[in-house]
Amino acid sequence: MTVVDPANWSCPVPLRDHPVVVMGHGGGGALSAELTEHLFAAAYGNETLAALTDSAAVELGGARLAFSTDSYVVRPLFFPGGSIGDLAVNGTVNDLAMSGARAAYLSTAFILEEGVLLDVVGRVAQAVGAAASAAGVTVATGDTKVVEAGHGDGVYVNTSGIGLIPRGVDIRPQRATPGDVIIVSGPIGAHGVAVLSVREGLEFGSDIVSDTAPLGGLVAAMLEVTSDVHVLRDPTRGGLATSLCEIATSSGTGVVLTESAVPVPDSVTAACGFLGLDPLFVANEGRLVAFVPPEHADAVLAAMRAHPQGAGAAVIGTCVTDHPGMVVARTGLGGTRIVDLPLGEQLPRIC
């Protein structure tokens, strides 16, 4: 008789009852995780992909490389502080940096909708070139496709990138360890609110601009202090809270977040209060969260604050043995609450 072990069962499609793709599948929350794990990862089936990190660490010709790809469908194409062109470069550069790598080369692929103004495409291309120059990365290859009018949204951009991981650096979510100090590189929530303000024609009484920026230099400054940084993550889709939940799940450790320690600009707090949003779940494009051993935390924090992209860095929590795989927030009233993955995304189409 054949013995069937339920532990070996797997489901090739998302577990929730969604027979078609919904917007939440692209939001970076629970639906995205299910789509990735139960459909794509199951279909591709390899150990490199199974790590599900921002960029894959691969061995090639004796070198250890970081490799990443991402697609950008932000609406509108231009917003306070940036554009889809900036995001396309900075997002991929930052994904590589989350493995400790300095980006070296990028590819860009433009999907253009018939009827879009060439002036608009030119502005996006110029933004890509300027952002690549600022990040110190070369756009080495690319592609262009055109789809019929009504079958796109003006301009979509895909970027892929490669970079070299320094020897002795091993940064991945599975390395989060009880005792680690959790540091965020600066105030959160500005990108998502900046995009929404233009999309919906909202005014919040003060200018809110995207935080989009390359983080390779900041990560390099941190690694000059110590190569033993355990985890780095850029909290884009789903925001800071989602990144912390994913790290806790991957490492099997608990996370304690001190809500009052998380830097949120007053303008973002006010806008989120008006819109009914939680800043912890709003996307960022120029911030990172780091898990650092306690013996190195003060020095790493000082190095971050000495860098332009980390001037607002703050300690926001710690990694613990309690409640493994879960994030618990200490509230300003002295209580605690569980922080869980959102089902989808509060603000779709912002990256």
UniProtKB/TrEMBL annotation:
Domain PurM-like C-terminal: 178-322
Pfam families named among the record's database cross-references: AIRS, AIRS_C
GO BP terms in the entry: protein maturation
Domain of life: Bacteria
SUPFAM superfamilies recorded: PurM C-terminal domain-like (SSF56042), PurM N-terminal domain-like (SSF55326)
PurM-like N-terminal domain residues: 54-165
Family assignment from sequence similarity: Belongs to the HypE family.
Protein name per its UniProtKB record: Hydrogenase expression/formation protein HypE
The species this protein was found in: Streptomyces spongiae
Upper lineage: Bacteria, Bacillati, Actinomycetota, Actinomycetes, Kitasatosporales
Gene this chain is encoded by: hypE
